[in-house]
Amino acid sequence: MADLPGWYDNDIDRVIVSEDDIRAKTDELAKQVAADYAQADSVLLVCVLKGAVMFMADFARALSRYGPPAELEFMAVSSYGQGMTSSGVVRILKDLDRDIAGKRVIVVEDIVDSGLTLSWLLKYLESRSAASVDVVALLRKPDAIKVPVPVKYVGFDIPSEFVVGYGLDYAERYRDMPYVGVLKPEVYQR
Q: Could you confirm whether the keyword DNA damage appears in this record (predicted)?
């Protein structure tokens, strides 16, 4: 069984970030955050659903090895609809379940693409009186950024191609792949 390809492997043109690279980078990012927040009593990790859930789980576990204690919170926002590029109009699909006033907030993102949604989200969180708001993102597409956003912790800069895996999807598929790969154009141009 181990020699058989994964369910979606034939849809992937090439792997951009391997499972091993993701694991190593997640640990490295957790060490950086732990060092920067060493004096904090705790941090509040805010996962942006659905794409960041895989990264959030692994990042939170890695951070727990180095401290400080982390609380987890989840938000769902949308600016894509069914399209492949951000519309720039953000809708909150699921808001935070608690007050974040005075909390040290770290937004956990899967990918920074145009920056439009993240820019809006950061303003929204800051308006709720968080003590601080930083961002840790596994992936960033520097060539696609339309709005500059302060992303303090970045795992990998990648080319502006349509990627899936490790939480990233196309039509709700591919999120469960353990790596990030470029989706073959014929898959989404059908």
A: no
Tell me the pLDDT tens digit for each residue of 106-128.
999 999 998 988 999 999 999 99
Q: Which residues are catalytic?
A: 113
pTM exceeds cut of 0.70: yes
Q: What is the pLDDT of residues 53-88, one digit of tens each?
A: 999 999 999 999 998 999 999 999 877 555 555 556
Phi, psi angles (nearest 5°) of residue 182: -85, 125
Number of structural domains (the chain) is 1
Alpha carbon separation from 112 to 35, 56, 85, 140, 150 (Å, rounded): 23, 15, 12, 5, 11
Residue 48 lies in a domain: yes
